[in-house]
Design a protein that fits this description.
single chain, 99 residues, alpha+beta
């Protein structure tokens, strides 16, 4: 998969408050970038706590669900676009299907 864009993740983990997310976000990015997901079931097989929220969006729990990562996935084009990374509280204020 081609993950767009690592910069959003890096900007997040470089914020002093969210520094603890760096290793897990780097690991997720590396795994996603080398993945060849064909559908949400393949993602769920690898990440049991990931959630399908509609509109080709997946939500990943980062740092034991302290942070939420939302991505939009185009399976045919092999593109994963970072749509949101934030705290659980910030996540509760958005619509994961439209962000």
């Amino acid at each position: 998969m081609w993950v767009i864009s690592r910069k959003k993740l890096k900007d997040f983990w470089e914020t002093p408050t969210y520094k603890d997310s760096e290793e897990q976000l780097k690991a997720w990015y590396s795994e996603a970038n080398s993945a060849e997901w064909k559908n949400p079931n393949e993602i769920k097989a690898k990440y049991g706590n990931a959630s399908v929220v509609g509109n080709n969006r997946m939500v990943f729990n980062i740092c034991g669900n302290k942070y939420r990562l939302i991505v939009a996935i185009n399976y045919e084009a092999h593109i994963v676009k970072i749509r949101f990374i934030g705290t659980h509280k910030q996540y509760d204020k958005i619509d994961a299907t439209t962000i």
